[in-house]
Design brief:
The chain is built from 13 helices and 14 strands. It is an alpha/beta fold.
Length: 396
């Protein structure tokens, strides 16, 4: 009896082994059509290249990652590269974008991308911090819903610490301003440029500040408005005064102490701008250039040019998600955003990173080293908030 049982078990094992590949096939297909369906679509989109692409063309499985897609289009330029990315992305559904872009920006850019490429975009929009939190939660759960992310540079620098991104230097890097490719695998797409702005009804041409030190002049007491959380601006200007203007740290501290003593501090650049426009204050220490340009275009008596230099800019940026379910679509959107997509930004009063679309003239424009700031953020935040406490805090 023992021999019969052993024989039956052996026969069963042989039958299972012979039938295993066929039995597992439907199970894998079922899984792909549910939790990882986009990944299966991306693979299918690449399979024709394996059949007709000649030696060295990746198989569907190999081209189902961002790295494999980049390998497949390596060396291609211009329309050849874009056409190949469109082909690879065509059967993979929408590109899933997590972004903080405002509705007016999204309503211009996303239809333009779809018109140029034929690939739709599925947008999850929230503020940068909320996007960062969502991505981290999804990463912890083992399933990220985004193919590509475009948010504030500080959040990208924080996310880069979690090894979520695939670094990629855009093929048109020579057309972009210096420093757009950032440590951690992301690239700047648009800029928030800090500017010293004035109310032209309240400040005569020959009275306008020429340097950052000028903001410490007692003549601005009661006429200067500053923003409560511009510690990144504070850090950049402080280090510039010490490193390039030759001030000691004690002297730089005194410059900011004199600024703050006679200044009003408000929460938010929009509030700062409204007060400046209304003539409640004559000078804003660090408003964004795009906001002043928009206000002036609507008739407000505000201006930021000629600029107090150097100008410091914090970037928004874009990154490719390592586990993208539509990797070709992600690369396509990333490269379009940094090339043709940039052409839509001037009409939206947004500062582009394509050098030929820059609207600061010959001004000395410097991109903030976001990773450096993030590493020291706690120190500079504490210092700046202590400084703000010596001025007049205007309630919201």
């Amino acid at each position: 009896m023992k021999k019969v049982v052993t024989l039956i078990c052996s026969l069963l094992l042989i039958m299972v082994a012979c039938g295993e590949p066929e039995a597992q096939q439907p199970e894998a297909s079922q899984e792909s059509s549910s939790s990882v369906a986009p990944q299966a679509s991306a693979s299918a989109a690449v399979e024709p290249a394996a059949e007709g692409g000649g030696e060295g063309s990746p198989s569907g499985e190999e081209a189902s990652s961002v790295e494999a897609v980049l390998a497949q289009v390596e060396g291609m330029q211009g329309s050849e590269r874009r056409d190949e990315l469109i082909r690879l992305a065509a059967d993979s559904g929408a590109v899933k974008l997590y972004a903080s872009m405002t509705p007016d920006v999204g309503e211009v850019l996303l239809p333009a991308f779809e018109e140029d490429t034929g690939v739709p975009v599925e947008l999850f929009r929230a503020d940068s911090d909320s996007v960062r939190i969502r991505l981290r939660q999804e990463a912890d759960a083992g399933s990220i819903g985004a193919d590509v992310v475009e948010v504030n540079g500080i959040e990208l620098a924080l996310l880069s610490q979690d090894d979520l991104f695939v670094p990629h230097e855009p093929p048109n890097i020579d057309e972009l301003i210096d420093g757009v490719v950032q440590p951690g695998g992301w690239t700047a797409t648009r800029l928030n440029i800090f500017t010293v702005a004035v109310n032209t009804n309240e400040v005569a041409e020959d009275e306008r500040p020429q340097t950052y030190q000028d903001l410490a002049d007692p003549g601005w007491d009661g006429r200067l408005v500053m923003e409560m959380d511009d510690q990144i601006w504070y850090k950049e200007v402080y280090e510039y005064l010490v490193a390039e203007e030759g001030l000691t740290e004690e002297q730089a501290d005194q410059v900011f102490a004199d600024m703050a003593e006679g200044a009003a501090f408000v929460s938010g650049h929009s509030t700062m701008r409204q007060l400046l426009m209304a003539g409640e204050y004559a000078v804003a220490s660090s408003d964004y250039s795009y906001g002043i340009v928009q206000a002036a275009a609507e008739g407000a008596p505000v201006d930021w040019q000629p600029p107090v230099e150097p100008l410091f800019a914090t970037p928004n940026g874009i990154a490719l998600i390592k586990d993208a379910t539509n990797p070709a679509g992600a690369v396509l959107f990333y490269e379009w955003w940094l090339s043709d997509g940039q052409e839509h930004l001037p009409d939206l009063a947004i500062d582009a990173v394509r050098a030929d679309l820059q609207e600061v003239g010959e001004a000395d424009l410097r991109l903030v080293d976001v990773a450096d700031y993030v590493a020291e953020a706690e120190e500079w935040t504490t210092r700046y908030h202590n400084l703000a406490g010596t001025g007049e805090i205007v309630p919201e």
